[in-house]
Amino acid sequence: MSSWLNRVAAGYRMDLCDLLEHDLGHGPVDDLDTAPLLSLLTVLSQRSGIELERLRGMSLAGWVPWLLDSLDDRIPAALETYAFQFSVLLPRRNRKTRSITRWRAWLPSQPIQRACPVCLSDPADQPLLLAWKLPLMLSCPLHGCWLESYWGMPGRFLGWKNADAAPRTANAAIAAMDRRTWQALTTEYVALPRRRVHAGLWFRLLRTLLDELNTPLSHCGSCSASIRHVWECCGHPLRAGQSLWRPYEILAPAVQLQMLEAAATAIALIESNGVSPHGEQAALFLMEPQTGFINDLPVKERKAQPVDHWREAAKALKEAIAEARHNRETARALFALASHGRRDPESLGRLRVTFSQEGVPPEFLSHYVPNGPFAFLSMNDGLSDKF
Ligand SMILES: [Zn+2]
Fold it and tell me: Which is more confident, 295 or 165?
Protein backbone atom coordinates (compact mmCIF):
# COMPACT_ATOMS: atom_id res chain seq x y z
CA MET A 1 0.00 0.00 0.00
CA SER A 2 2.77 2.47 0.88
CA SER A 3 4.63 1.62 -2.33
CA TRP A 4 1.54 2.13 -4.47
CA LEU A 5 0.49 5.40 -2.81
CA ASN A 6 4.06 6.71 -2.95
CA ARG A 7 4.10 6.08 -6.70
CA VAL A 8 0.67 7.66 -7.14
CA ALA A 9 1.84 10.75 -5.20
CA ALA A 10 5.05 10.90 -7.25
CA GLY A 11 2.91 10.89 -10.42
CA TYR A 12 1.32 14.13 -9.20
CA ARG A 13 4.67 15.47 -7.97
CA MET A 14 3.34 15.35 -4.42
CA ASP A 15 4.57 13.89 -1.15
CA LEU A 16 2.69 10.91 0.23
CA CYS A 17 1.77 12.99 3.31
CA ASP A 18 0.22 15.70 1.13
CA LEU A 19 -1.71 13.15 -0.91
CA LEU A 20 -3.10 11.56 2.24
CA GLU A 21 -3.88 14.82 4.01
CA HIS A 22 -5.19 17.10 1.32
CA ASP A 23 -6.60 14.82 -1.27
CA LEU A 24 -7.73 11.85 0.76
CA GLY A 25 -8.57 13.67 4.01
CA HIS A 26 -6.31 11.59 6.24
CA GLY A 27 -3.44 12.51 8.51
CA PRO A 28 -0.13 10.70 8.13
CA VAL A 29 -0.74 6.98 8.45
CA ASP A 30 2.25 4.96 9.58
CA ASP A 31 0.73 1.51 9.29
CA LEU A 32 -0.28 1.65 5.64
CA ASP A 33 1.29 -1.75 5.07
CA THR A 34 -0.05 -3.40 8.23
CA ALA A 35 -3.69 -2.47 8.74
CA PRO A 36 -4.81 0.77 7.07
CA LEU A 37 -8.05 2.29 8.36
CA LEU A 38 -11.23 1.18 6.66
CA SER A 39 -12.20 4.84 6.13
CA LEU A 40 -9.01 5.38 4.12
CA LEU A 41 -9.56 2.20 2.10
CA THR A 42 -13.12 3.29 1.34
CA VAL A 43 -11.99 6.67 0.01
CA LEU A 44 -9.23 5.01 -1.99
CA SER A 45 -11.70 2.55 -3.48
CA GLN A 46 -14.04 5.38 -4.49
CA ARG A 47 -11.23 7.40 -6.08
CA SER A 48 -9.41 4.55 -7.80
CA GLY A 49 -12.28 2.26 -8.72
CA ILE A 50 -10.32 -0.65 -7.22
CA GLU A 51 -12.42 -3.01 -5.08
CA LEU A 52 -12.03 -2.83 -1.32
CA GLU A 53 -10.93 -6.46 -1.07
CA ARG A 54 -8.06 -5.92 -3.48
CA LEU A 55 -6.97 -2.82 -1.57
CA ARG A 56 -7.04 -4.83 1.66
CA GLY A 57 -4.69 -7.35 0.04
CA MET A 58 -2.10 -4.60 -0.28
CA SER A 59 -1.57 -4.69 3.50
CA LEU A 60 -0.85 -7.52 5.94
CA ALA A 61 -4.40 -7.30 7.29
CA GLY A 62 -5.52 -8.73 3.96
CA TRP A 63 -3.21 -11.74 4.48
CA VAL A 64 -4.94 -12.83 7.71
CA PRO A 65 -5.65 -15.69 8.39
CA TRP A 66 -3.47 -17.39 5.78
CA LEU A 67 -0.04 -15.89 6.23
CA LEU A 68 -0.65 -15.20 9.90
CA ASP A 69 -3.45 -16.08 12.30
CA SER A 70 -3.92 -12.55 13.60
CA LEU A 71 -2.31 -9.12 13.76
CA ASP A 72 -3.00 -9.09 17.51
CA ASP A 73 0.26 -10.06 19.22
CA ARG A 74 -1.32 -10.90 22.59
CA ILE A 75 -3.04 -14.14 21.64
CA PRO A 76 -2.06 -16.92 24.08
CA ALA A 77 -0.15 -19.85 22.58
CA ALA A 78 -0.03 -18.15 19.16
CA LEU A 79 3.48 -19.48 18.47
CA GLU A 80 2.52 -23.01 19.57
CA THR A 81 -0.52 -22.98 17.32
CA TYR A 82 1.32 -21.63 14.30
CA ALA A 83 4.73 -23.23 14.36
CA PHE A 84 4.44 -26.37 16.49
CA GLN A 85 1.34 -28.22 15.37
CA PHE A 86 3.10 -29.54 12.29
CA SER A 87 6.44 -31.32 11.90
CA VAL A 88 8.77 -31.80 8.95
CA LEU A 89 12.32 -32.79 9.90
CA LEU A 90 11.88 -33.67 13.57
CA PRO A 91 9.30 -35.93 15.16
CA ARG A 92 6.82 -33.96 17.21
CA ARG A 93 7.80 -35.68 20.43
CA ASN A 94 11.25 -34.13 20.22
CA ARG A 95 9.87 -30.62 20.25
CA LYS A 96 10.11 -28.50 23.31
CA THR A 97 7.06 -26.36 24.02
CA ARG A 98 7.88 -22.69 23.67
CA SER A 99 5.70 -19.92 24.90
CA ILE A 100 6.30 -16.21 24.62
CA THR A 101 3.98 -13.44 25.64
CA ARG A 102 3.79 -11.34 22.48
CA TRP A 103 4.29 -12.84 19.06
CA ARG A 104 3.09 -12.52 15.47
CA ALA A 105 4.18 -14.80 12.65
CA TRP A 106 6.66 -13.43 10.11
CA LEU A 107 6.54 -9.80 11.26
CA PRO A 108 10.17 -8.88 11.94
CA SER A 109 11.14 -6.90 15.02
CA GLN A 110 13.64 -4.96 12.90
CA PRO A 111 12.53 -3.42 9.60
CA ILE A 112 13.87 -5.15 6.51
CA GLN A 113 14.86 -3.16 3.43
CA ARG A 114 15.44 -5.61 0.60
CA ALA A 115 14.36 -5.43 -3.04
CA CYS A 116 14.99 -7.03 -6.40
CA PRO A 117 17.53 -4.97 -8.36
CA VAL A 118 15.94 -6.03 -11.67
CA CYS A 119 12.41 -5.06 -10.56
CA LEU A 120 13.79 -1.68 -9.54
CA SER A 121 15.93 -1.12 -12.61
CA ASP A 122 13.45 1.34 -14.16
CA PRO A 123 13.85 4.65 -12.27
CA ALA A 124 10.40 5.76 -13.49
CA ASP A 125 8.61 2.90 -11.76
CA GLN A 126 10.08 1.27 -8.68
CA PRO A 127 7.51 -0.88 -6.92
CA LEU A 128 8.28 -2.47 -3.56
CA LEU A 129 6.46 -5.71 -2.82
CA LEU A 130 4.96 -6.21 0.62
CA ALA A 131 6.50 -9.68 0.84
CA TRP A 132 9.98 -8.13 0.60
CA LYS A 133 9.41 -6.49 3.98
CA LEU A 134 9.08 -9.87 5.65
CA PRO A 135 11.77 -12.52 6.26
CA LEU A 136 9.81 -14.84 3.98
CA MET A 137 11.74 -15.01 0.71
CA LEU A 138 15.36 -14.70 -0.40
CA SER A 139 14.91 -14.14 -4.11
CA CYS A 140 12.65 -12.40 -6.59
CA PRO A 141 10.16 -14.96 -7.90
CA LEU A 142 9.96 -13.11 -11.21
CA HIS A 143 13.69 -12.72 -11.90
CA GLY A 144 15.28 -15.46 -9.80
CA CYS A 145 17.92 -13.17 -8.34
CA TRP A 146 18.65 -12.41 -4.69
CA LEU A 147 16.79 -9.59 -3.00
CA GLU A 148 19.46 -7.01 -2.12
CA SER A 149 19.62 -4.49 0.72
CA TYR A 150 18.96 -0.92 -0.27
CA TRP A 151 18.83 2.50 1.36
CA GLY A 152 16.76 5.55 0.54
CA MET A 153 13.24 5.63 -0.82
CA PRO A 154 12.66 3.86 -4.13
CA GLY A 155 10.93 6.11 -6.64
CA ARG A 156 12.74 9.19 -5.21
CA PHE A 157 16.29 8.19 -4.42
CA LEU A 158 17.74 4.75 -4.16
CA GLY A 159 21.09 3.22 -3.37
CA TRP A 160 22.23 -0.39 -3.02
CA LYS A 161 24.29 -1.34 0.02
CA ASN A 162 26.44 -3.51 -2.19
CA ALA A 163 26.85 -0.85 -4.87
CA ASP A 164 28.93 -2.78 -7.40
CA ALA A 165 27.04 -6.04 -7.24
CA ALA A 166 25.23 -7.16 -10.35
CA PRO A 167 22.05 -9.17 -9.73
CA ARG A 168 23.09 -12.50 -8.19
CA THR A 169 21.22 -15.57 -9.39
CA ALA A 170 19.73 -17.57 -6.52
CA ASN A 171 20.52 -21.28 -6.45
CA ALA A 172 17.91 -23.86 -7.48
CA ALA A 173 16.91 -24.74 -3.90
CA ILE A 174 16.23 -21.10 -3.00
CA ALA A 175 14.43 -20.37 -6.26
CA ALA A 176 12.22 -23.44 -5.78
CA MET A 177 11.27 -22.50 -2.21
CA ASP A 178 10.53 -18.90 -3.17
CA ARG A 179 8.47 -19.93 -6.19
CA ARG A 180 6.25 -21.93 -3.85
CA THR A 181 5.92 -19.04 -1.44
CA TRP A 182 5.03 -16.77 -4.34
CA GLN A 183 2.49 -19.30 -5.54
CA ALA A 184 0.98 -19.32 -2.04
CA LEU A 185 0.80 -15.52 -1.95
CA THR A 186 -0.73 -15.18 -5.38
CA THR A 187 -2.86 -18.29 -6.00
CA GLU A 188 -3.91 -19.60 -2.55
CA TYR A 189 -2.32 -22.99 -3.26
CA VAL A 190 1.12 -24.57 -3.52
CA ALA A 191 1.89 -27.59 -5.69
CA LEU A 192 4.03 -29.94 -3.57
CA PRO A 193 5.35 -33.25 -4.95
CA ARG A 194 2.71 -35.34 -3.15
CA ARG A 195 -0.27 -33.03 -3.60
CA ARG A 196 -1.50 -29.47 -3.73
CA VAL A 197 -1.70 -27.79 -0.32
CA HIS A 198 -3.47 -24.65 0.83
CA ALA A 199 -1.34 -21.51 1.13
CA GLY A 200 -2.02 -21.40 4.88
CA LEU A 201 -0.44 -24.83 5.31
CA TRP A 202 2.59 -23.89 3.22
CA PHE A 203 3.42 -20.85 5.38
CA ARG A 204 3.04 -22.93 8.56
CA LEU A 205 5.21 -25.74 7.16
CA LEU A 206 7.90 -23.24 6.26
CA ARG A 207 7.75 -21.59 9.68
CA THR A 208 7.86 -25.03 11.32
CA LEU A 209 10.95 -25.97 9.34
CA LEU A 210 12.68 -22.72 10.32
CA ASP A 211 12.14 -23.52 13.97
CA GLU A 212 13.26 -27.13 13.57
CA LEU A 213 16.52 -25.90 12.05
CA ASN A 214 16.95 -23.65 15.10
CA THR A 215 16.47 -26.50 17.58
CA PRO A 216 19.44 -27.23 19.89
CA LEU A 217 21.00 -30.52 18.78
CA SER A 218 20.63 -31.86 22.33
CA HIS A 219 16.85 -31.88 21.73
CA CYS A 220 17.04 -33.51 18.31
CA GLY A 221 17.86 -37.05 19.44
CA SER A 222 18.63 -39.33 16.50
CA CYS A 223 17.73 -36.52 14.07
CA SER A 224 20.65 -34.33 15.13
CA ALA A 225 22.73 -35.73 12.24
CA SER A 226 20.08 -34.59 9.75
CA ILE A 227 19.97 -31.07 11.19
CA ARG A 228 23.76 -30.87 11.17
CA HIS A 229 23.86 -32.18 7.58
CA VAL A 230 21.44 -29.48 6.37
CA TRP A 231 23.56 -26.73 7.91
CA GLU A 232 26.76 -28.20 6.47
CA CYS A 233 25.22 -28.36 2.99
CA CYS A 234 24.09 -24.74 3.05
CA GLY A 235 27.51 -23.57 4.25
CA HIS A 236 26.48 -21.60 7.33
CA PRO A 237 27.32 -22.32 10.97
CA LEU A 238 24.92 -24.56 12.84
CA ARG A 239 21.71 -22.67 13.77
CA ALA A 240 23.21 -19.64 11.98
CA GLY A 241 25.50 -19.24 14.99
CA GLN A 242 22.70 -19.00 17.57
CA SER A 243 23.24 -20.59 20.96
CA LEU A 244 20.10 -19.35 22.73
CA TRP A 245 16.70 -20.05 21.25
CA ARG A 246 14.65 -17.03 20.22
CA PRO A 247 11.68 -16.94 17.85
CA TYR A 248 12.62 -16.46 14.21
CA GLU A 249 10.86 -13.10 13.97
CA ILE A 250 13.13 -11.37 16.48
CA LEU A 251 16.44 -12.71 15.16
CA ALA A 252 18.78 -10.27 13.42
CA PRO A 253 17.98 -9.90 9.68
CA ALA A 254 21.28 -11.49 8.61
CA VAL A 255 20.53 -14.51 10.83
CA GLN A 256 17.01 -14.80 9.40
CA LEU A 257 18.41 -14.93 5.88
CA GLN A 258 20.76 -17.77 6.81
CA MET A 259 17.85 -19.61 8.42
CA LEU A 260 15.82 -19.22 5.22
CA GLU A 261 18.74 -20.53 3.20
CA ALA A 262 18.92 -23.56 5.49
CA ALA A 263 15.16 -24.13 5.04
CA ALA A 264 15.56 -24.08 1.24
CA THR A 265 18.48 -26.52 1.53
CA ALA A 266 16.48 -28.81 3.85
CA ILE A 267 13.55 -28.99 1.41
CA ALA A 268 15.88 -29.75 -1.49
CA LEU A 269 17.59 -32.49 0.57
CA ILE A 270 14.26 -34.03 1.61
CA GLU A 271 13.09 -34.08 -2.00
CA SER A 272 16.32 -35.66 -3.25
CA ASN A 273 16.47 -38.20 -0.38
CA GLY A 274 19.57 -36.47 0.99
CA VAL A 275 18.11 -36.49 4.51
CA SER A 276 15.47 -38.68 6.11
CA PRO A 277 12.78 -36.49 7.61
CA HIS A 278 10.92 -37.74 10.69
CA GLY A 279 8.08 -35.22 10.78
CA GLU A 280 4.47 -36.06 10.02
CA GLN A 281 4.13 -33.57 7.14
CA ALA A 282 7.46 -34.44 5.46
CA ALA A 283 5.62 -36.89 3.19
CA LEU A 284 4.17 -33.90 1.34
CA PHE A 285 7.64 -33.33 -0.12
CA LEU A 286 8.07 -36.92 -1.26
CA MET A 287 6.66 -38.41 -4.44
CA GLU A 288 6.05 -41.94 -3.16
CA PRO A 289 4.58 -43.00 0.16
CA GLN A 290 7.26 -43.86 2.69
CA THR A 291 6.61 -46.36 5.42
CA GLY A 292 8.81 -45.41 8.33
CA PHE A 293 12.55 -44.88 8.33
CA ILE A 294 15.21 -47.35 9.28
CA ASN A 295 17.84 -44.90 10.38
CA ASP A 296 19.32 -41.55 9.51
CA LEU A 297 21.24 -42.75 6.47
CA PRO A 298 20.21 -41.02 3.27
CA VAL A 299 17.67 -43.18 1.48
CA LYS A 300 19.76 -43.37 -1.69
CA GLU A 301 22.47 -45.27 0.19
CA ARG A 302 20.06 -48.09 0.96
CA LYS A 303 19.66 -50.84 -1.60
CA ALA A 304 16.41 -50.64 -3.51
CA GLN A 305 14.36 -53.85 -3.44
CA PRO A 306 14.20 -55.45 -6.92
CA VAL A 307 10.70 -55.49 -8.38
CA ASP A 308 9.15 -58.98 -8.28
CA HIS A 309 7.34 -58.89 -11.62
CA TRP A 310 5.83 -62.34 -11.18
CA ARG A 311 4.34 -61.43 -7.81
CA GLU A 312 2.97 -58.20 -9.36
CA ALA A 313 1.46 -60.14 -12.30
CA ALA A 314 -0.15 -62.69 -9.96
CA LYS A 315 -1.63 -59.86 -7.92
CA ALA A 316 -2.97 -58.17 -11.07
CA LEU A 317 -4.45 -61.47 -12.28
CA LYS A 318 -6.21 -62.02 -8.96
CA GLU A 319 -7.71 -58.52 -9.20
CA ALA A 320 -8.75 -59.11 -12.83
CA ILE A 321 -10.54 -62.36 -11.91
CA ALA A 322 -12.38 -60.58 -9.10
CA GLU A 323 -13.54 -57.92 -11.55
CA ALA A 324 -14.47 -60.47 -14.25
CA ARG A 325 -17.10 -61.88 -11.87
CA HIS A 326 -19.26 -58.83 -12.42
CA ASN A 327 -17.84 -57.15 -15.54
CA ARG A 328 -18.52 -58.72 -18.95
CA GLU A 329 -15.76 -56.75 -20.74
CA THR A 330 -13.13 -57.80 -18.20
CA ALA A 331 -14.34 -61.40 -18.33
CA ARG A 332 -13.93 -61.48 -22.10
CA ALA A 333 -10.52 -59.76 -22.00
CA LEU A 334 -9.30 -62.29 -19.47
CA PHE A 335 -10.76 -65.15 -21.51
CA ALA A 336 -9.03 -63.88 -24.64
CA LEU A 337 -5.71 -63.82 -22.78
CA ALA A 338 -6.19 -67.25 -21.22
CA SER A 339 -7.27 -68.86 -24.49
CA HIS A 340 -4.06 -67.87 -26.29
CA GLY A 341 -3.15 -70.70 -28.69
CA ARG A 342 -6.45 -72.56 -28.29
CA ARG A 343 -8.65 -72.81 -31.35
CA ASP A 344 -10.63 -76.06 -31.01
CA PRO A 345 -14.10 -75.81 -29.44
CA GLU A 346 -13.37 -78.59 -26.94
CA SER A 347 -10.34 -76.77 -25.48
CA LEU A 348 -12.27 -73.50 -25.30
CA GLY A 349 -15.12 -75.35 -23.63
CA ARG A 350 -12.81 -76.64 -20.88
CA LEU A 351 -11.58 -73.08 -20.32
CA ARG A 352 -15.18 -71.87 -19.99
CA VAL A 353 -15.70 -74.42 -17.23
CA THR A 354 -12.57 -73.20 -15.45
CA PHE A 355 -13.84 -69.60 -15.65
CA SER A 356 -17.20 -70.67 -14.37
CA GLN A 357 -15.54 -72.44 -11.43
CA GLU A 358 -13.73 -69.14 -10.66
CA GLY A 359 -17.14 -67.49 -10.34
CA VAL A 360 -17.31 -65.79 -13.76
CA PRO A 361 -20.97 -65.99 -14.96
CA PRO A 362 -21.09 -68.38 -18.01
CA GLU A 363 -23.41 -65.98 -19.87
CA PHE A 364 -20.56 -63.43 -19.99
CA LEU A 365 -18.68 -65.85 -22.27
CA SER A 366 -21.48 -67.69 -24.07
CA HIS A 367 -21.03 -67.46 -27.86
CA TYR A 368 -17.82 -65.51 -27.26
CA VAL A 369 -14.90 -66.59 -29.44
CA PRO A 370 -11.72 -64.66 -28.78
CA ASN A 371 -10.04 -63.02 -31.71
CA GLY A 372 -6.55 -63.66 -30.44
CA PRO A 373 -4.64 -63.21 -27.21
CA PHE A 374 -4.89 -59.42 -27.30
CA ALA A 375 -8.46 -59.15 -28.53
CA PHE A 376 -9.27 -57.21 -25.38
CA LEU A 377 -7.26 -54.28 -26.73
CA SER A 378 -9.96 -53.60 -29.30
CA MET A 379 -12.91 -54.36 -27.07
CA ASN A 380 -13.66 -50.78 -26.16
CA ASP A 381 -14.35 -49.73 -29.74
CA GLY A 382 -17.35 -52.01 -30.10
CA LEU A 383 -15.71 -54.74 -32.18
CA SER A 384 -16.50 -57.27 -29.49
CA ASP A 385 -20.20 -56.77 -30.09
CA LYS A 386 -20.06 -58.81 -33.29
CA PHE A 387 -19.40 -61.91 -31.19
ZN1 LIG B 1 12.50 -8.95 -9.70
Answer: 165
